[in-house]
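Hi C.,

You asked whether I'd gotten around to modeling the 205-residue construct. I have! Everything is below, sequence then structure, no commentary in between.
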Amino acid sequence: LLPSLIFSCFLISLVDSKRLSDIYWNSTNPHLESCSAIDDLVDIRCPSGKTNEQVIIYRVSKVEYDECRLGDSPKEVGRCVDPKAETKLKIAFRMFQPNPFALTYQPDTTYYFISTSTGSPNGLTNREGGLCTTHALKMKMNVVKRGAACHSHRKHHHHKTTTVPSTTVSRDIPLGNPYRLPDPEERREEWILTPSMPIESIQKK
């Protein structure tokens, strides 16, 4: 009964969801601040082209955001590891998710995101400092109730980096293994979710 109820609420949220403007996550676009309502969707575009940056995006506490460091159980939002492709990490700001590995969000709450990676492959799993310190690569996301107006002040415009012609790789997350890319026929809006498995769990797999 409970799974059916959650899935029904999820289907209702699809009707009311709104897609926000893309957020460009790269070192030339620091101190991001945005706002979303419950059930909104947003694409975070990974660095591509000449920047050649490889990063991991984490959702963290305010203290970790301020200090540019990861705590004991950081929540991974996604990985940008292929600068030659236009990779998008898709986030759904939902209170309930059908995917058990997806992050959930509550209204009237501010969420914090950082990248402590250095930008190079060798510094991908760096746990403190990195681009968060050197280039202020971090973001605040103010989440409000569904249908409520957002009043956040964006501190920086979302500039697009120079890209190379390539096929866009969408990180659509179907049920099952949340760390594999789906087949084309699986790319359905309802499975656009974000994994939130602790880093320690990922390393054990």
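If it helps when you're writing up: The first strand starts at residue 23 and ends at 24.

Thanks,
B.
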